[in-house]
Amino acid sequence: TATPQGPGGQPHPEDEEQNVKLTEILELLVAAGYFRARIKGLSPFDKVVGGMTWCITTCNFDVDVDLLFQENSTIGQKIALSEKIVSVLPRMKCPHQLEPHQIQGMDFIHIFPVVQWLVKRAIETKEEMGDYIRSYSVSQFQKTYSLPEDDDFIKRKEKAIKTVVDLSEVYKPRRKYKRHQGAEELLDEESRIHATLLEYGRRYGFSRQSETEKAEDKKTALAAGLSATEKADAHEEDELRAAEEQRIQSLMTKMTAMANEESRLTASSVGQIVGLCSAEIKQIVSEYAEKQSELSTEESPEKLGTSQLHRRKVISLNKQIVQKTKHLEELRANHTSLQARYNEAKKTLTELKTYSEKLDKEQAALEKIESKADPSILQNLRALVAMNENLKSQEQEFKAHCREEMTRLQQEIENLKAERAPHGDEKTLSSGEPPGTLTSAMTHDDDLDRRYNMEKEKLYKIRLLQARRNREIAILHRKIDEVPSRAELIQYQKRFIELYRQISAVHKETKQFFTLYNTLDDKKVYLEKEVRTFMKRKWLSSQQAMASPAARDQFLRQMEQIVEGIKQSRMKMEKKKQENKMRRDQLNDQYLELLEKQRLYFKTVKEFKEEGRKNEMLLSKVKAKAS
């Protein structure tokens, strides 16, 4: 297309600035990563709108646009797309104002700051989400693949964990002493800390140096010739160390006294021991003797020999091993049973979850179908279904009652048959009973048959009523299915609009072809006519024109008349062209008015849909309150 020019034939300065801004916008979009802006076949509107949509979606905001690309959109489509883009900008807190007609009219001077801000925001969003996307990619990679270092780590992981657990179990703190319950309470925090550490066999305070180290320190001090102040500091340190040792010894004495108290047996413990069986008494006595010997050994180890002390320790350790082994077997058996119960419970939980998810899906599908249906028809259908279920339950109850009644009647019939037997008759007659008893029995049988036929006829009528209700329910189902839902109507409307647009486009193209053909045909007819006339006159007059000067002048006048006729034909065609141009301008004005009406229609439809949605929400709230 040619660039608009001013009165002097030069381009407008504003158009030059628009082109400069368009170039800057495309460069910004390409630098941000939107490489579709390089495609030369796309129009500037498609490039700019596509770039703005790409920036908005990159910033994690939604834009209601068609997924499929559509070239050469109409003005209404461009305005609708521009309105959707402009409606998103306030939610993104864009500091620049932009109107839909500015995007549709390609006002790049006002579009440039918005695109510049969107590109900046998109780059910031990419930087913020880069680490997250990278970590997500790494996690997705690790779900399917693994590196050799990871495989080695997984192989060594279980063994390393087991080793760490074993080491922590072996070297964990173990309590060796315990304070007496009646001992005096420690008031200062430092004493309580030292007492707690001593219970676990740890001593903290001044370091205990060996005699050789002290002697060496004294020799070094004498050799170096310490001053009187340094000697006084050393003496003060020795005194503090002695006081610390004395306090630790006092704490240990209280703990040792507590251990001696625990080694004695109280009267209650003796009574409990006596109450046990003899085998357990022997075992407890032996354990008590061993503990007593161990305590005596700990108190005075110098009185026992090394071999005897070692033997007692070995026996004690063997007994502990046996006890721990039994305890381990019990724990293993308990663990096996608990594992089986856990697997069974887990399987049951999985089945229940699957069934629950299935029920949730079916319930959601039913609620979705129920929300689309007409409430009045749905309520009527519910009443009919409830009636049908009630009739079915009544039918089942009536069948059960009929079976019971039939069983009872059959039993009575059997009893009557037994009474009506020949020997029964003889016995009755011989016993002197009245002969009218047989007649009363027959009357009772007839009564039972009549009641049975009445109940059978009643059952038949109930079945006919049930069949009639089922037919009515089926008819209502068919009527409900025949009425299209709102979603189907919207889908039909969209399809009809698409077909209308396709037909309109084909009709417009065909009309243009017809117009072009008629124009070219008229042009051809005029040219052929002019050529034939011109050649004929030229051929006839050229021979005579060369004969004399008068004939030559007449030939020139004829040529001027031909030229004048051509000019008149040209003026007629120009006049016809002006008329067609005026008609085209009128049609264009009508077309713009129709586009404005179309835009107003789309806006009204959008508002109507919003009001319809609000109406449905209010109706649902009213129904919820009513229910």
TrEMBL record:
Biased composition (Basic and acidic residues): 418-428
Listed GO biological process terms: Golgi to plasma membrane transport
Residue ranges the record marks as coiled coil: 226-261, 556-597
Superkingdom of origin: Eukaryota
Residue ranges annotated for the CCDC93 coiled-coil domain, each copy included: 170-621
Region (Disordered): 418-443
Domain CCDC93 N-terminal: 17-123
Alphabetical keyword list: Coiled coil
Family: Belongs to the CCDC93 family.
Protein name: Coiled-coil domain-containing protein 93
